[in-house]
Amino acid sequence: xxxxxxxxxxxxxxxxxxxxxxxxxxxxxxxxxxxxxxxxxxxxxxxxxxxxxxxxxxxxxxxxxxxxxxxxxxxxxxxxxxxxxxxxxxxxxxxxxxxxxxxxxxxxxxxxxxxxxxxx
Length: 120
Description:
The protein has about 120 residues and is an alpha/beta fold. The protein has one domain (about 5-90). Helix content is about 25%, strand content about 30%. It has helices at about 5-15, 60-70, 75-90; strands spanning about 20, 25, 30, 45-50, 55, 75, 95-105, 110-120. Strands 1-4-5-6 form a 4-stranded mixed sheet. A two-stranded antiparallel sheet has the order 2-3.
């Protein structure tokens, strides 16, 4: 079993879910085209704040407007992803086997993802 430490519960139940993270950690981009393991659906997240900009979930346009009205610059998640690629380049994909080593369950007990063994 793999757990998110309550992240998915908090994000799903919050009126406003904000993730704060650096755009790049070391040489690894925080934003990727496809996540390796999903523990919290992106639809549960309203705002991503990074050191390179603020992105708002397109499902929450009123939040984006309120941030702009407050004088903050809002960018798209796609812009942040491109910015990360400029800084780091495209990461090499990780090779996995078909062997499932863990199951990720969502807050309701449903399977949200599985973790595969990394290939040698």
